[in-house]
Amino acid sequence: MSDIQSTAVSDEMMANAIRALSMDAVQKANSGHPGMPMGMADVATVLFTQFLRFDPKRPDWPDRDRFVLSAGHGSMLLYSLLHLTGYDRPGIDDLKNFRQLHSPTAGHPEYGEMPGIETTTGPLGQGLANAVGMALAERMEAARTPDLCDHRTFVIAGDGCLQEGISHEAASLAGHLKLGRLIVLYDDNGISIDGPTDLSFTDDSRMRFEAYGWHTSGVDGHDPEAIAAAIDEAIREDRPSLIACRTTIGFGSPNKSGKAPATAPPWEMKKSPLPVPNWAGTIRPSSSPKISGPHG
After folding, report:
1. Whole-model pTM above 0.90?
2. Where are the domains of the chain?
3. Omega cis (within 30) before 90
4. For 102-119, how does the pLDDT look when each residue is reduced to its tens digit (9 = 90+)?
């Protein structure tokens, strides 16, 4: 387990900061997707503060864990995390310029705009496929330099990602190759922009991934202890893992939570921005400890 520790900020406080930043940035831009960042804030907080190995002051550290936001439409989740965990950018002005021309905080994350963005995402399923390639690259490099390379690849993917054919093909390959250092956190919120996902999507995703040869589990996506236990279990697996995180889209909203309108349109309910500090000084990233376990 990583030694990232929060010395002054609770999981709940950080998750709520992500929600506030995401909601306010989308509202100011009058465009974007606040629902997914608000729903996955608890999962992302646990991942970044307890498991993900990274150094925001040395973002090109070769053996850093990779984080891929396959559900790239929820880009404010990633931007908020980078802001709160000590990366030089995005700063608060970058967040205020979300989705504006020439801003590094584009509507979908773009590789090369800022450290911490491992790949361009947005086309659903593409990020998951990219992550399979990253996990395979780690496998190959670890075979050559096992003392220098043992990082993991973590993904946040949504229902839309799992509906795309590109994710099916990549997931099948990952299972075949037993890429055990790949962990996908599935935002299982049951909602799409058009309404409930069962309008077009009735697969049993966990059974499908098990058929590919993956380890799977399900968890309450708003229970930090359960989330941590599920990730810890996945780390000990020698197969790739899918953790279905049952979440509520737009979690925390008094009138959009759990509903399709939380997916995309900016919300008229907001009255004033919420002041949220940069807590970089209280969150200590891990830059050297190794997570034990077999190479996947």
Report:
1. no
2. 38-71+115-262
3. yes
4. 999 999 999 999 999 999
